[in-house]
Structure formats: structure tokens, C-alpha cells
Design goal:
Radius of gyration: 19 Å
Number of strands: 2
Low-confidence stretches: none
Mean pLDDT: 92
Strand content: under 5%
Shape: globular
Structural class: mainly alpha
Number of helices: 12
Largest sheet: 2 strands, antiparallel
Strand order of the largest sheet: 1-2
Distance between the termini: 44 Å
Length: 294
């Protein structure tokens, strides 16, 4: 059950990892606004579900407000020429207050409320024990295919070029600023949708549930790349989801069996940082063991 639970979380948060992949790997943009976009999707979905809205529509609404938040960050960075890192931080700070205003309080309970994950699995006749896993897998697979196919279109190719060579994009008659706004909107749309599903999965929406989202997303992307070493776009996109599942499993194992090493639930952020640190340092350590020099 531990592995199944970790896989469920890994797939749900894999949508967030896909968003982080778009911003950090495709656009080369340090978007810290995802720490606010994730609970924004959860807050909007939560309040809509409490008002009787269909959970599928609520999840889509969570993704929609994520799109708007990402576009806002892009506008700050391109139109007002605010440095990308600061633009993301400003959006994140503003969203913290906005999320409380949307919910009317710091958190909402969704226990006993309908869930898009459960309803989708029940419609497919999935056994109860695997409802969340199958539904999360379907949502994740759909997002993976859409992102992969989009990045192979002409517009997607231009989006990929923005992070590598904006001047080339401009020479082709396209505006790299507009493409950056589009990319950040798509990235945060995925993050907001992930937050909406996470709220339905966990049974609550909380203003603080987005703390550390960017670290978890980066850890998922980096761990996936370290393990799979993708040489094609297909595996590069897939690595983000795979890394999310591995990351959640590692955290679950550490929290369950880490008591012997002195770890507790309050050490989650420390464990997350150690996973990211290990993943970042792995290439350097591997090169050193092979006797390579920089």
C-alpha cells in the first residue's frame, strides 16, 4: 500500500512536475510563482466543490486560474521588465493573500465531497483500492501526450527555442516575449490543475499547501533526468512524471523508516532538500569517480 500511495501522489504531483519542466527546462525561466499557483488551483476547486460544482469542472477551473497567474508573471517579466526571479516571487506573495480571500479562511475541508478522481474511476468500473491510482494515471497520461504533441508543433518548437536562443526566434518574425507569456501560462495551468486534484485527493485545501512546491517540482525533474538520462523529447517529458513518482516514494520511505535514523515528519523539508542536493551533485560526483576534470 505504501508503494501504491506514493504512486498516486507521484502521478498527481507529476502534473505539477510537468509544469516545472516547461518553465525551467523549456523556457529556462526561474518561476517561483508555482508555490502560489498550486494552492490557488486547490482553493478555487475547493470553494467551487463546496458550492456544488462538478469536481471535473472545478479542477479545470483550478487549471484556468493557474493559466492567468502564469500569464501575469510573464507580463511582469516581459512588459514591466522585472527580473524573472523577482516576478515569480511577487506573484507568489500576492497569491498568498488572494488564496485566503478566495477560501474565506486559511483552509477548507473537502472530506465527503465528490472527487473527480473517484468519479472517473467509478465510471470506468475500477476496483475501489485502485480508484485514485487509475484516475491520476489517466489525467497524467493525457497531460503528457498533450504537452509532448504540442512541443512538436511549430508553435511548440518556437517555445522550445525561446529558452535557448531568443534572438533566433525574433529573427523568424515571432515575439519571444509573447511566447514566454504563453509558456508560463501553460506551466502554471498544469500546476493549478495539479493543485485542484491534490485538494480533492487529500480532502482539503490549505493556503500553505504550496510551500516547497518548486523544490518538489525541481527534485522530480532532476531525479527523473538523472535516472533516465533522456536523449529525446519524449523521454525528457516522461522523466518529469517518472521522477515525481520516484521522489514521492523516496520521501514516503524516508518518513516511514527514517525513525531509526532520527527523522520525523517535521523533517520533510530537510529530506526534500537532501534529495535535490543529491540529484544536483550526482553528475559532478560521477565525473569525479571517473577521473574526469571540469
Amino acid at each position: 500500500m505504501l508503494i501504491l500511495h506514493a504512486a498516486e501522489q507521484g502521478l498527481i504531483y507529476g502534473l505539477m512536475a510537468l509544469g516545472v519542466y516547461l518553465s525551467f527546462r523549456v523556457l529556462s525561466f526561474p518561476d517561483l510563482s508555482v508555490d502560489g499557483t498550486f494552492p490557488l488551483g486547490a482553493a478555487v476547486a475547493g470553494i467551487l466543490i463546496l458550492q456544488g460544482t462538478n469536481p471535473f469542472l472545478a479542477a479545470l477551473a483550478g487549471g484556468g486560474v493557474g493559466l492567468l497567474a502564469g500569464a501575469f508573471t510573464g507580463l511582469l517579466a516581459t512588459r514591466l521588465r522585472i527580473p524573472g526571479l523577482l516576478a515569480g516571487v511577487l506573484t507568489m506573495i500576492m497569491l498568498y493573500s488572494l488564496n485566503i480571500r478566495i477560501m474565506g479562511r486559511p483552509n477548507l475541508s473537502l472530506l465527503g465531497r465528490p472527487s473527480a478522481l473517484v468519479q472517473l474511476s467509478q465510471a470506468l468500473g475500477v476496483p475501489r483500492a485502485y480508484e485514485n491510482f487509475v484516475a491520476a494515471g489517466i489525467f497524467c497520461l493525457a497531460a503528457f501526450l498533450l504537452i509532448f504533441l504540442f512541443l512538436h508543433t511549430e508553435l511548440g518548437g518556437a517555445l522550445r527555442a525561446v529558452g535557448q536562443n531568443p534572438q533566433l526566434v525574433r529573427s523568424l518574425g515571432m515575439n519571444p516575449d509573447n511566447l514566454l507569456i504563453l509558456g508560463l501560462a501553460l506551466s502554471n495551468g498544469l500546476v493549478g490543475f495539479s493543485g485542484a486534484l491534490a485538494a480533492q485527493y487529500s480532502g482539503f485545501a490549505d493556503v500553505g499547501m504550496g510551500v516547497g512546491t518548486i523544490i518538489a517540482g525541481l527534485a522530480s525533474v532532476i531525479v527523473g533526468e538523472i535516472l533516465l538520462r533522456p536523449r529525446s523529447l519524449f523521454f525528457a517529458v516522461f522523466a518529469a512524471i517518472f521522477g515525481s513518482c520516484v521522489y514521492r516514494l523516496a520521501i514516503s520511505l524516508a518518513l516511514r523508516y527514517g525513525a531509526a535514523l532520527g527523522f520525523t515528519a517535521s523533517d520533510l523539508r530537510l529530506l526534500t532538500a537532501l534529495v535535490v542536493l543529491g540529484a544536483l551533485a550526482a553528475p559532478t560526483i560521477r565525473a569525479a569517480l571517473k577521473g574526469e576534470t571540469s
